[in-house]
Amino acid sequence: MAELPDSFVTARRNSSRSRCSPRSSAVERERSRHTRTANQEPIGNTTVAITAMVTTKKAIMKVTTRVAAAVRPATVSLIATALFAILLVLVLTAWSPLMTADIAVLNGLHAHALKHPAFVATMKTISNAGSAPVYTVLFTGITAWLLYRRRFRQATFVAVAEIGGGLLNSLLKFLVHRPRPLVLDPVAQASGLSFPSGHAQSAAVAATVLLVVFAGELNRAGRFASYYLAVLAVGFVGFSRVALSVHYVSDVLAGFCAGIAWATCVLILTDRAWAGR
User: How many Å apart are CA 76 and CA 63, to the nearest integer?
Assistant: First the structure.
């Protein structure tokens, strides 16, 4: 059989390559696309996660702001007063589950405090930060600043809420006449009666007053942060009083309720008094 010329063989090979090249190119393009997608997936996933976190945070802030705006002082005052009344009845009747819980928490924290001096020092620092001398200096300055700014309604609200809150606490303690807890090897000393906690009530009044006066000056993020900082600050002050074994848990909870009820009541009355002018 005669051999084919070399030129013919070369032409056939080139023709075959040209026919196969579109398919090969398609395969290469698909492989390249998958490679790019695989390389971009971590970045894409991270971007989606960050976007979801930011969206969630904005949603939480928006809901919190709307709830805070929707809650009326009268409603808050009514709820706080009702909760205080319930605690008062339970304490006066020495309701067994509450008394058991009070003593169990008190003894547990006292045992922990005896073994950890640093814990005691921290609790004393927090407790002292929420004491009457600190509030006197702070709110005297705020009242003077409000008067200077001619914000007389808010100045009246601050003065009445702070001064009246102390008088109310003394009256409630006298009427209930609950003795303070007694423990062996006390880590702190406190005089007077126990129910409701003066520190807890003062902290609640102070937080409410500060939010009413200054929260409106902040943007949405600032208000969101201030609400949570207020809750944390008030909570730590109340916790420190139980940790130092100078109050029961029910004393602290009643102090929170009394403080919020009093401050919101003063706010309502102040607003009505100025609205009539």
Answer: 18
- 171 and 223 assigned to the same domain: yes
- Count of residues in the chain: 277
**Same domain, yes or no, for 57 and 148?**
no
The tens place of each residue's pLDDT in the chain, 277 residues long, gives 445 455 544 545 555 444 544 555 555 555 555 555 545 445 455 555 556 555 665 665 555 555 554 458 888 889 999 999 999 999 999 999 999 999 999 999 999 999 999 999 999 999 999 888 999 999 999 999 999 999 999 999 999 999 999 999 999 999 999 999 988 888 888 888 999 999 999 999 999 999 999 887 888 888 888 899 999 999 999 999 999 999 999 999 999 999 999 999 999 999 888 876 6
Residue type for position 48: V
Assigned domain for 4 exists? no
**Cα separations (Å) of 223 from 128, 219, 250?**
26, 6, 29
- Where b means 16+ CB within 10 Å and e means fewer, 29-55 reads eeeeeeeeeeeeeeeeeeeeeeeeeee
CA gyration radius, the chain:
34
Domain membership of residue 7 (yes or no) is no
The answer to whether position 224 is within a domain reads: yes
Q: Which residues contact 248 (CB under 8 A, 6 or more apart)?
A: 102, 103, 105, 106, 181, 194, 195, 242
Calculate the alpha carbon distances from 102 to 127, 164, 202, 206 in Å: 19, 28, 21, 25
pTM of the complete model:
0.72
